Amino acid sequence: MTLSARISHRFGDFTLDATFEAGPGVTALFGPSGSGKTSIANGIAGLLRPDAGRIALAGDVLLDMARDVCLPAARRRIGVVFQDGRLFPHLTVAQNIAFGARYAPRGAPGLDGGTIEDMLGIGALMHRRPASLSGGEKQRVAISRALTMRPRLLLMDEPLAALDGPRKDEILPYLERLRDSGAVPIVYITHSMAEIARLADRIVVLRAGRVLRAGDVTDVLSDPAMVPLIGVREAGSVLIARVIENRPQGLSRLSINGGELHLPGVDAEVGKFLRIRILAQDVLVSMERPVGLSSRNILPAVVEEVHRGDGPGVALSLRLGEDRLLARITADAMDELGLAPGTNCYAILKATAVARADIGAMSG
Amino acid sequence: MLDAAAWDALALSLQVSATAVICSLPLAIAVAWFLARRRFPGHAVLSAMVHLPLVLPPVVTGYLLLLAFGRNGWIGGALAEVGIVFAFRWTGAALAAGIMGFPLMVRAIRLSIEAVDPKLEEAAATLGAGRWAAFARVTLPLIGPGILAGTVLGFAKAMGEFGATITFVANIPGQTQTLPSAIYAFLSVPGGEGSAMRLVVLSASVAIAAVLISEWLARRMAARVRG
Known about the structure:
The structure holds 2 protein chains of 2 kinds.
Chain A: E1 3-11, E2 14-22, E3 26-30, H1 37-45, E4 52-57, E5 60-64, E6 69-70, E7 78-81, H2 93-98, H3 113-120, H4 135-148, E8 153-157, H5 165-181, E9 186-190, H6 193-199, E10 202-207, E11 210-216, H7 217-221, H8 227-230, E12 236-246, E13 251-256, E14 259-264, E15 273-279, E16 283-286, E17 297-308, E18 313-320, E19 323-330, H9 331-337, E20 344-349, E21 359-362
Parallel strand pairs in A: 3-9, 3-10, 7-8, 8-9
Antiparallel strand pairs in A: 1-2, 1-4, 4-5, 5-6, 10-11, 12-13, 12-15, 13-14, 15-21, 16-20, 17-18, 17-20, 18-19
Helix pairs in contact in A: 3-4, 4-5
Chain B: H1 4-37, H2 43-55, H3 58-69, H4 76-81, H5 90-114, H6 118-126, H7 131-142, H8 144-160, H9 163-169, H10 179-187, H11 193-226
Helix pairs in contact in B: 1-5, 1-8, 2-5, 3-9, 5-8, 5-9, 6-7, 8-11, 10-11
């Protein structure tokens, strides 16, 4: 693993005690506010000296409180993108971006300046001052600045939380490009399941300072037992789909493991792979193939797992070939249909239920 | 219009004030940084010590300086052996002026450091900058206007310092006679009012010029810092 971290720290009543690992690609730390995400980020970055713990990055020990080792932030070579950008107000964009370059060791691997400039689309901003940038531009500059120091790990602490919806949607494609470049492993801290569904390869679920679950995003997000933790309206699975046809009216045919999806507004060439987030609340379950129904997406499935919550809802995972789709229905409906693990059924998804922002690009 | 004595007094005052400000500025920045950014035992005591010259009667400060830095003082005696003498020299006037202006400089600089978000220094650290580099490349440029304000206040205070100076280094024309001392000397002799008035106008002009120049510099600096 690239990063292995164990951090324990007490703040008054709150105790943080988290252990997790992060590999190549994007590892998301997910949790509500107060779950200890930012303290973990500060611990990794070297801005917090925890009571106990050990952090190693690619074999180098950054922190080992048992041996009283705690490298200062300046020597960890971890690029940090803060929620509030923290651009230096007295420097131009170009000077901000170049700030850390002189501290990178000669020959450190990483993206060169021109590639970063293109990837984040900041060429036109170079002579501006931070005060004249929009929120989205500021974050793109902050990411460029962190990459220019040639970090061994990029740590992003709620980088989109301060932006409004359209600005978030504007930045996500840049982050996807960065992820797909494979240039640097990323630890991405967020409370937004939508961002995780778009970006993350792995997820670490935090609650009250502890790690509740860690694993591949597709597995964790399609686990019915995770629904109460993620939130019933936010819960949903991520499927990998490939574009097979773009129809003239704007509807696209996508192949997924267990069949085909028909979705509007896909905006990707034939042959491209996409990550599609399907909210559990947008999936219907039918015992027979419905006829005379407007939905374009009717997929044969097998009930795999059932999770009854405290409320009236039930979360189901449905197997579609190799993929799992998460559905949320009422307990009454489940009992009436007699759904149980092993039951054959049909999963129904309205074509317009998938928001444009829940379709992400991916390479490969 | 001005006689030689007046020109001497002006030149000496500028020399004394400039020396006082230049020598005390690095220390003022360091003390202001510690007071703004660090919490340590003795924080309140250090803060009180720094402010002491502001609240003590200047003549008391001058007398304490004489006790400490006079030829027989416990610091002055030691320094005299290595050839540094303050008592009854222009250097002593600079020391007195520096000490009297110090609280004003520290106060202005401390406020400007407190206005710099420490999170920017953290960001600099994550980018690889050590503590000194972060200070030099982020904090220092951002507190430029505060340093300028402190410098102007300290300079103005030094130009006007009278009580501690005259107590510590007396009023020797060409040696320790600064503008305020010269005004005082002219006023103590019959028929000196005319000369005194010319010096009053001169000091006022220097003070107003200093404030105008610093205002102009501060506006330029603030615009640069704000972006």
